[in-house]
Amino acid sequence: MKKPSMRLDPPALTVVRKNLSLYLLLLPGVAYLIIFKYIPIGGLVMAFQDFNIFAGFFGSEWVGLAQFRKLFASPDFYRIFRNTLLVNTYKIVFVFPLPVMLAIMLNEIRCTPLKKVSQTVVYLPHFLSWIIVSGLFMNILSPSGGMVNQIITALGGEPVFFMSDNRWFRTVLVVTDAWKEMGWSAIVYIAAIAGVEQELYEAATVDGAGKLRQIWHVTLPGIVSTIVLMFILKLGSIMSGGFDQVLTMYNASVYETGDIIQTYVYRIGLGKMQYSFSSAVGMFNSVIGLALTVAGNTVSKRLTGRSIW
User: Quick one: which of 167, 111, 136 has its CA closest to 248?
Assistant: First the structure.
């Protein structure tokens, strides 16, 4: 009589079989990453070629680092590099803390209907495209009839061309980004606050701590790991954030302060068909972003003991 097989499946295979439906749900996300994130990496070879759209990757002339030398010698390079760093640094300094503060304030609302309405109102701007937001703020900031300039002239001032003035354009970018994304970004912190043990608040109340002390000694320490994680991710995108926003808001008169690496690549790569040069710019941008992510993670791990990896 033949004995039944006693072969056991590997632990990993057992886990996959038990959670097969979850892995199937994961497939579209994995397919998206492979198709739109990993496969295009092969296009970076253009940064080392004098790419010809008709000759293709294999027929184009190999020029090594010539495109990078052209990039660093370009008078536009330092301008767009400076603009990219400044605009996104301003967003980190002035916008990054706002979702944390908003999440704490929303968490302190005790009237449930008011809390739900408040959350809905602050979430809504995120679902507006930058084209709509751009048109909205162009009307609000218009020098002829815009609400802001009406207030300025009523107070005895002169109209300000916010969208065409190099002195104000970066401020407009920071303010509009805060208005659009602050509520949506607060969701992560609201979820983190919900995970803080309520017993800690009760113990703080027994010890005589008021609301501000509870926020400082209980809420913030409870969500600091989330804040660190979001900060590192934000730091990693410091060289790649804001393309849609800037593209829909800027014009030739504010190239000096508003033109960033992504919009420059768009104008040069598609507008002038300099594919190799724009690929070199994009690759440089990605390398800097990766370096900032690693550096931010390392510093956070040494100073706070918390990191992504």
Answer: 136
Q: What distance in Å separates the CA atoms of residue 181 and residue 294, rounded to the nearest whole number? A: 25
Q: Can you tell me the distance from the alpha carbon of 22 to that of 182, in angstroms, rounded to the nearest whole number?
A: 32
Whole-model pTM?
0.82
DSSP states along the chain: -PPPP-PPPPHHHHHHHHTHHHHHHHHHHHHHHIIIIIGGGGGGGGGGEE--TTTHHHHSEE-TTHHHHHHHH-HHHHHHHHHHHHHHHHIIIIITHHHHHHHHHHHT---HHHHHHHHHHHHGGGGS-HHHHHHHHHHHT-TTT-HHHHHHHHTT-----GGG-TTTHHHHHHHHHHHHHHHHHHHHHHHHHHTS-HHHHHHHHHTT--HHHHIIIIIHHHHHHHHHHHHHHHHHTTTT--HHHHHHH--GGGHHHH--HHHHHIIIIIIS--HHHHHHHHHHHHHHHHHHHHHHHHHHHHHHS----
Residue 87 contacts residue 173 (beta carbons within 8 Å): yes
d(CA 177, CA 245): 8
The encoded tokens of residue 65 equal 């680092």
Euclidean distance between CA atoms 171 and 86, whole angstroms:
11
Contacts of residue 103, Cβ cutoff 8 Å, sequence gap at least 6: 186, 187, 189, 190, 192, 193
Q: For the chain, how big is the Rg over CA atoms in Å? A: 25
- Per the CB < 8 A criterion, the answer to whether 297 and 118 are in contact is no
Q: How high is the mean pLDDT in each 10-residue block of the chain (309 residues)?
A: 54 81 91 91 89 86 90 87 91 93 91 90 93 93 89 90 92 94 93 90 88 91 89 82 88 90 84 85 85 83 76
